[in-house]
Amino acid sequence: MESQRNISEFTLMGLSSVPNIQTFCLVFFLICYIAILVGNLLILISIACSSLFHQPMYYFLSHLSSMDICYTSCVTPKLIGDQLVGRNTISYGNCMLQVFVMHFFGLIEVLILTFMAFDCYVAICNPLHYMTVMSRTRCNILIFAAWAGGAAHSFSQFFMIIWLPFCGPNEIDHYYGDIFPLLQVACTDTHITGVLMVANSGMAALVPFIFLFGSYVIILFTLRNQSAEGRHKALSTCGSHITVVILFFGPSIFAYLRPPTTFPKDKIFALFYTIIAPMFNPLIYTLRNTDLKKAMRKVWCQKVFSEEKHN
Question: Are 111 and 146 within 8 A, CB to CB?
């Protein structure tokens, strides 16, 4: 591998070189990361400590929250640290690791969102068989399938990028190591590799999105025959999921389902699926979900009450 490269680290161009904007980014990303950790941990603990954990939708939501924490933690802490020390570099090994873990956790999140849409479809379109279809055993199998799919996707991306020679320049026009910016600095013809990566990452985003779109078309068609109260309850439940899907899938499809090149706006779109979506997910699911709000109040009020009683 050493014979294929003569650089040991990459320089990340980041979001901006203007000092005032860098200071703003530092404060903004620090607030975002704290919000991501607090919001998703609140959902995780609230679901785990309540009866909601035994319901498939909230079981998937707890896994989605854990993936949000893992996914954004691959990028945001380093981004904040780089702004603090003023040195935007990443070693070759850490860059390759970042490519792997970002695509690993990213596809797991994509598949969990897809399974949540399937859960909504079964609950609305086939309610009598819901508990049979969405048994805990089947939910566990789906989560395992998400992890296996994430591993297959990320290993294939990793093995394609790790064999590329990097001889210089070593400046990556991004704020983290991603496949298309790395293709731009490889010192070889990357046309075939780029096409394979587009086929891999693009299809990984497009196929689940088509499944999601088809599921909600069927759900909306089915809701026509239900009462106004039933439609409102179903749309309230599905509305949160649809909002999260748009926030995550829209920028992801733009980033990966296109010719393997880079644009200045790529970094802005990447912020949506690496930081903005994980930050808003807890807020979206909490504000629009009565059962989750009740569970959170019950769990945390009991904790406060027990601590006061103990003191």
Answer: yes
Residue 9's DSSP bridge partners are 91
Q: Are 22 and 16 in contact (CB under 8 A)?
A: yes
* 238-280 per-position pLDDT tens digit: 777 788 888 888 888 888 877 777 777 788 888 888 888 888 8
**Which amino acid, one-letter code, is at 170?**
N
CA distances from 291 to 2, 58, 124, 223 (A): 55, 10, 17, 21
DSSP state of 166: B
Tell me how far the alpha carbon of residue 14 is from its chain's centroid. Answer: 20
Which amino acid would we find at residue 311?
A: N
Nearest by Cα to 182 from 69, 278, 251, 103: 103
Q: Which two tokens stand for residue 115?
A: 């399974």
How far apart, in whole angstroms, are the C-alpha atoms of residue 23 and residue 2?
37
d(CA 37, CA 11): 28
Q: Work out the number of other CB atoms within 10 angstroms of the CB of residue 304.
A: 10
> What pLDDT was estimated at residue 68?
92
Reported as type and span, the H/E element at residue 11 is: strand 9-12
CA pair distance 288, 300, nearest whole angstrom: 19
Helix (H, G, I), strand (E, B) or coil at 177: coil
Cβ-based burial of 297 (10 A; exposed 0-12, middle 13-18, buried ≥19): exposed
* Angle, CA 241 vertex, CA 275 and CA 243 arms, to 5°: 60
Order across the sheet with 171-172: list the strands.
89-91, 9-12, 171-172
Q: Nearest to residue 167, comparing CAs of 281, 18, 274, 7?
A: 7
The predicted-structure confidence for 57-116, as pLDDT tens digits, reads as follows 899 999 999 999 999 999 999 888 888 887 788 888 899 999 999 999 999 999 999 999
Residue 5, beta-bridge partner list: 166
